[in-house]
Amino acid sequence: MATISLKDIDTRAPKDLDKKEIKEKTTAILAELDELQNLLFAEDKHSVLVVIQGMDGSGKDGAIRNVFTSMNPQGVNVQGFKAPTPEESDHDFLWRVHQYSPGKGMIQIFNRSHYEDILVTRVHKWCDDKTAKKRMKAINDFEKLLEEHNNTHILKFYLHISPGEQHDRLSERMKDPAKMWKYNEKDFEEAKLWDIYMEAYEDCFNNCNDVPWIIVPSDQNWYKEFIIADELCKLLKGLDMQYPGLKKE
Fold first, then answer.
1. Which of 116, 132, 139, 176 is the most exposed place for a label (fewest CB within 10 A)?
2. The pTM is what?
3. CA-to-CA separations, 122 to 127, 128, 131, 185, in angstroms, rounded
4. What is the CATH number of domain 28-237?
């Protein structure tokens, strides 16, 4: 598989795409996803894990809200992973993650994920390179375990924004009352580590790619949401699911 270099991937939609047309397509896909998610839940044979990673301000929360809330909330769970608690730190780094893996019939979304343990920890030197490489192998094995032993299908999205767009979005949190609750002055300090984060992400993409990463141009929310919805729709349609019919007594 070719290596991923983020500087070679555009953060914006192709110029020949029409915003209105893409938004209409997204609306149609979301209606289809509602039915497909119901079918996934009813058939109870498959599960889906959606991993969403990205820098601060890349639009993870918005993507989850605008793509997944059209579905039945009984069949969709969202879990975020922040700094581990003392109990979690006393276990291996995947212990707290595994308990949130999706059961059959469910779509589980990770808003940040097990990948934080080879990203932010590595950037801040809390995890050395040797440990990071061991964790990468463990992550590949973990995802293989989910696929082979629970019929879990995994989608991994990296929301790819430009430094300029990130700055604008973080600055907006200081001015927009509806977004002020998201403001964290530390986000601007993290942004100064951009180049180091990009190196960590690229190493992650190129070593944890048994399940391929989908790099989503995310400077424009309408295009980001279309890509995520379309990839999920294609995955679910490819499962060839069937309603189970009447249960036998």
1. 176
2. 0.95
3. 5, 6, 9, 21
4. 3.40.50.300
